Amino acid sequence: MGGRGRGGYRGGKxxxxxxxDFKDGRPDVWKKQRSEGxxxxxxxxxxxxxxxxxxxxxxxxxxxxxxxxxxxxxFIETLKKPLPTCFRINGSGQFAQDIRDQxxxxxxxxxxxxxxxxxxxxxxxxxxxxxxGQLAWTLNFSRQQLRKLPILERIHEFxxxxxxxxxxxxxxxxxxxxxxxxxxxxxxxxxxxCAAPGSKTFQLLEMIHKADKPGCLPDGLVIANDLDVQRCHxxxxxxxxxxxxxxxxxxxxxxxFPGLKKKRRENAAxxxxxxxxxxxxxxxxxxxxxxxGETSLLFDRVLCDVPCSGDGTIRKAPDIWKKWHCGLGxxxxxxxxxIALRGVALLKVGGRFVYSTCSLNPVEDEAVVGEILxxxxxxxxxxxxxxxxxxxxxxxxxxxxxxRDKRKWLCSASEVNRHRAGAIVPSMFPSGxxxxxxxxxxxxxxxxxxxxxxxxxxxxxxDGGTEKDDEAEEVEEExxxxxxxxxxxxxxxxxxxxxxxxxxxxxxxVFQKVAPFKVHPKLKEQKNERRQGNQSVGTKDDPGVxxxxxxxxxxxxxxxxxxxxxxxxxxxxxxVDVSAAAAPAATGQKKDIxxxxxxxxxxxxxxxxxxxxxxxxxxxxxxxxxxxxxxxxxxxxxLPAxxxxxxxxxxxxxxxxxxxxxxxxxxxxxxxxxxxxxxRERKVQQQGKWKxxxxxxxxxxxxVIQSLINYYGIRDSFPLRGHxxxxxxxxxxxxxxxxxxxxxxxxxxxxxxxxQHLKISSAGLKIFERQTAKETVEHCAxxxxxxxxxxxxxxxxxQIVHVSRADFKVxxxxxxxxxxxxxxxxxxxxxxxxxxxxFVVVLPERTADGEVDLTRSTAVGCWRGRHNVSLLISKxxxxxxxxxxxxxxxxxxxxxxxxxxxxxxxxKGEQEGTPGVDKNATAGPGASAESKSKTEDPALVxx
Length: 943
Ligand SMILES: C[S@@+](CC[C@H](N)C(=O)[O-])C[C@H]1O[C@@H](n2cnc3c(N)ncnc32)[C@H](O)[C@@H]1O
Description:
Layout: E1 9-10, H1 20-24, H2 29-36, H3 42-45, H4 55-64, H5 72-79, E2 85-89, H6 96-108, E3 115-117, E4 120-122, E5 126-127, E6 136-139, H7 143-148, H8 150-165, E7 168-170, H9 177-182, E8 189-192, H10 199-208, E9 221-225, H11 229-240, E10 247-250, E11 260-263, H12 287-290, E12 294-297, E13 299-305, H13 319-323, H14 327-345, E14 347-357, H15 366-376, E15 380-382, E16 395-396, E17 403-405, E18 408-410, H16 447-456, H17 467-475, E19 494-496, H18 498-501, E20 506-513, H19 521-532, H20 560-570, H21 578-587, H22 595-601, H23 610-617, H24 628-632, H25 651-660, H26 676-688, E21 697-698, H27 702-712, E22 724-726, E23 736-739, H28 742-751, E24 760-763, E25 765-770, H29 774-777, E26 782-784, H30 789-792, E27 800-802, H31 805-812, E28 817-818, H32 825-833, E29 837-843, E30 858-864, E31 868-871, H33 875-888, H34 929-932
Helix pairs in contact: 11-23, 14-15, 14-20, 14-21, 20-21, 21-22, 31-33
The protein binds S-adenosylmethionine.
S-adenosylmethionine (SAM) binds next to helix 10.
GO molecular function: methyltransferase activity; tRNA binding
Main location: nucleus
Protein name: SAM-dependent MTase RsmB/NOP-type domain-containing protein
């Protein structure tokens, strides 16, 4: 019974909260440009179509052989067209099957074939062939076509509505692939290293919860990490729709993601299912387990969807045409390797690892994969997954490619000019041969000829594709020497080309860890050298990964900071701030770090624009404030609430430097040797920087816990102790209580110390919210949060009322519905005998034996006033539920919530007195401001 999420609960399924930030998606640059000057003639209003060509881009990719010559024209032509719209039906959403059936019967059956409208062909609406269960669909029609063909208008309306309440998610087709290749099971521990804005995290959570039975939680968890505090907000709100207690959102540089601990549990009783069987997932983390000791937490699955140049998204973001240059890929390559290697180190033997980019550039793709394999030295196998996604059109990975630098094509590291050896590193080439393995190295090597060319370029433009560049390039078009061919099985990588299935461009490599990861001794030596030099590389305080496991820097002789510095000179493009993203990795210099900037600019393959999304979150009016979390004002939804600065993302790195430093190492400031005691003291001082950061605390106040248990009649089958967390130390003032699964609870208990280890932005799901209504606060000061309803309901024994279909429709159709408006006397009696305050209305479906079937029943959170009932869901959600009921009963559709005669005014009166009520809400006291808005999703239809 009951339903996951705000919209109620049905079938133990997830909720459907949708926030405007997700509806908005990545800005539709096509549309924006069109609408900017609407109403005037193109010339008059200065509207210029996007420049959809770039000589530099075309020259680069033509040369690389990424696209067969005979397909080149089609490739380029496809890139110039806007991307079709794709969406995924949230598989665990309560109406997933209904939506799929409706797509199939109401729309697909009518639009199976191309249809001609005014001489233009309209493509059929179709499911993505390779996506399981026909849960992902693609459509491609313009606004003009929509106006002319009523069926398209109906589809558009339908999708708008479903998108608004979160039953579907707009997501690029290719971006759905990495989670599918990860093959996540409910008991898996999954790390999503670069997760924001979270469309893939959402899919991962769906997989974790795919076998949920009402009342049971899976044993797995997803740790979703992102460097950028602001993008972490998007991540939090995106994943919130899954109503999952099995998620932890963290805010680290992925290349420095801390090693975590878990209980050693060979014989431990709790979390019995760590071997893979499913259990109830509520296992209490008890002190008894502590005796069993601790061990490293390694992940069953790691997703490494790295920041990249993003040129595979050029159809969605045609501004890339103008900005593109080869330095973008070269510049981000070292960071991509660092992140990937950290991911491999944190992966279990036997576990799967997916590396993906939304770039077609071999330097960001095959070159990184090659380097991962080389550094993993046999501990990693690149899998051939070609048969795992039948119907997916892809190209095999390249075995040879070139590196372009300063208008030169380079075949091997031996051709790198010594002045460029910081920017162009051996790992970019197919053989990956380091300077020391080459006959010549950049110090003494073949730099001369190149230098000449470089000198000629003095004062010239960057590799940006100007006419002048092109003329110069004509002269030195020929590649100087033999192409290198990789000896690794890189053909197992998969590249999705846009013209194959009218999609974006994408790259995926799937690995399995077959043995513990040992870093090559040579690289270890280099790492030690750097440590001596007080540079921060590798991992810190890493109980999960042995010293050997710590991935070394990847630039074969050059530190990443060197690479970055050099790259900076090359990459003057402000939209890709490589230094911001990569410099901290190698230098650990706090002041240098501008994570938000770098992170925002790089890797824009997501479906949600940071700027728009952050605005839509609209917690306060400050949008993208200079000072990170403080100004964002997320209150206690996110950790660095007070005083946290963007640059604090590296607080852990400073610790890392100190923890890794051998005793007596020279202090950074003084030049004097510090004792270990002094180091410890300094570390405590560092923690001072975290002063004011809201901690993640377990709620242990017995009075509060007992009042929750008594008021809602919570059974022992739903343990609260050890599972409720808050962000406030003062119990009398805490506003929200979050519920975490046993798996998340354990991670927090063993790994969380403010300022020292795991930087948690958000944990679990909101289950209770403070309310202050006088008549109920004496019983219980907390009402049920909509997100928490599906998880708690199967374990509740009080404050539940069953309703008939007729009265449920009355309830859904009104605001603050008076008791006397209902038809059934039993229902009215039940309402009158309830304690005032929060309760749950259940529309039961029964089994053949007459038992309530929790998997099919529907439930919504409500508020019992003195004489009326209000819904705790948004107006849109209520309307949609009502519409479905009417459809099922073959009654005329009701599109709008209409007030019931005699109902009390919904905002004033009853709601004003209702605790915790957002006065902006349109459908009852629980409706949040964000869910009330009914804005059109601009991106569902291309202009
Ligand atoms: C390609 S996007 C990820 C998209 C995401 N996986 C999804 O499906 O919604 C890359 C992300 O990496 C983040 N990022 C950039 N540098 C990072 C770093 N060093 N560590 C962790 N995250 C980083 C960016 O903030 C950005 O959100």
